[in-house]
Design a protein that fits this description.
Blueprint (H helix, E strand, L loop, with lengths): L1 H8 L3 H8 L4 H5 L8 H13 L3 E6 L7 H20 L5 E4 L10 H17 L4 E3 L7 H15 L3 E6 L5 H10 L4 E4 L14 H18 L4 E3 L3 H13 L8 E5 L4 H9 L4 E7 L4 H10 L3 H11 L1
Parallel strand pairs: 1-2, 1-8, 2-3, 3-4, 4-5, 5-6, 6-7, 7-8
Helix pairs in contact: 1-12, 5-6, 8-9, 9-10
Bound molecules: dihydroflavine-adenine dinucleotide.
The site of dihydroflavine-adenine dinucleotide (FDA) has 23 residues, from strand 4, strand 7 and helix 12.
């Protein structure tokens, strides 16, 4: 119920406008978001490097409505890639296609993302294409496939375990050698498309995770679920899958205890680090995942 409410609020522009312009915003977002500026994002990445954690940098934004805005997103990402390279970091970037014009100009979107791909290729890095709501799944996977044909090895798809279609998508992506990040899924979906029960989503996650670890190309296991992480570790030990054939991924600011355990035990870990001023929908999805975060934020506001 609370999950649905936060996901509903994440789409309300009046609340978004009010919150993003609030002088208190930095106080409640700082746990999940590196800052509003690129330099703040890079600063976090450098700190993580000292802890032997790699990252994927996300310039926050989604659902732009003009070609100019889409071009601005592209330019911001090109600046981010240049800053990553200048700092000698091995970070990738994560993007949402609706930030590049997918809603209204698919060709322009492809051209924008192609520029990022060219840059990733020269850096021997990767562009990770986040998955948005199921309205976009086909178009997103179509574009990933096109990019993979041209820039194989430098693009990664994301698959959501809550969708019924995901097993078939994973089989198709693995057959093409496209790397996949597996997550549970963070959007409001109808019961005709996605498992409504969390227990079913978790069970499907484990099934898909094993499939990816056995047959995928450098999969990313993206979760903070302690039970699932234990199962992942057990599976790779049983199958003798070497730790350089996959990576774990987590979100910046969530379950640092588990992050330390993984790196301490010699596993690869990449953190998803968002920055930018369009933080509202991302922030609300983090509240939807764990409504107790509201208490944490309220305490933060009172303390300051
Ligand atoms: P689950 O929600 O069951 O949480 C397990 C435990 O993790 C909780 O008990 C709690 O301890 C901790 N936890 C989880 N979320 C928390 C939060 N917000 N605050 C505090 N603690 C929290 N989704 C999507 O639809 N498209 C995408 O492209 C991506 N990309 C992506 C990248 C990466 C690196 C990660 C880790 C996640 C995503 N996601 C995503 C989000 C994902 O779909 C999912 O909503 C969250 O990861 C939460 O699910 P968990 O797997 O952590 O399990």
């Amino acid at each position: 119920m609370l999950r649905k409410t936060f996901l509903y609020l994440s789409q309300q522009s009046w609340l978004r406008h009010w919150m993003e312009n609030s002088p208190l915003s930095q106080r409640f977002t700082s746990r999940f978001i590196a800052g509003e500026r690129l330099e703040e994002g890079i600063h976090v990445l450098e700190k993580l490097r000292r802890e032997k954690i790699t990252a994927t940098l996300d310039f926050l934004g989604e659902n732009v409505s003009t070609l100019d805005e889409a071009a601005q997103s592209r330019d911001n990402y090109l600046k981010a890639q240049a800053a990553i390279r200048a700092s000698g970091l091995t970070a990738t970037v994560s993007i949402k296609l609706t930030q590049f014009g997918l809603d209204f100009a698919e060709e322009a979107c492809l051209n924008n993302v192609t520029q990022l791909m060219e840059c990733a290729k020269t850096m021997d890095s990767r562009v990770e294409i986040d998955m948005e709501s199921s309205d976009y799944t086909d178009r997103t996977l179509g574009l990933v496939t096109t990019l993979h044909k041209r820039f194989g090895g430098h693009v990664r798809a994301v698959i959501q375990a809550y969708l019924f279609r995901s097993e078939s998508d994973i089989r198709s992506l693995s057959a093409q050698g496209i790397p996949v990040r597996l997550c549970k899924g963070a959007y409001r979906e109808p019961p005709s498309m996605a498992y409504p029960l969390k227990s079913d989503v978790d069970a499907n996650y484990v099934k898909l995770m094993k499939l990816l670890l056995d047959e995928g190309t450098y999969p990313a296991i993206a979760t903070h679920d302690e039970t699932i992480l234990k199962q992942a570790r057990l599976h790779v030990q049983e199958r003798q899958i070497s730790p350089d054939r996959f990576e774990f991924q987590m979100l910046y600011g969530i379950r640092r205890d588990l992050q330390n355990q993984l790196t301490g035990d010699g596993y690869r870990l990449r953190l998803y680090v968002p920055y930018g001023d369009a933080w509202y929908p991302y922030f609300m999805r983090r509240l939807a995942e764990r409504p107790a975060n509201v208490l944490f934020i309220a305490k933060n506001l009172l303390r300051n």
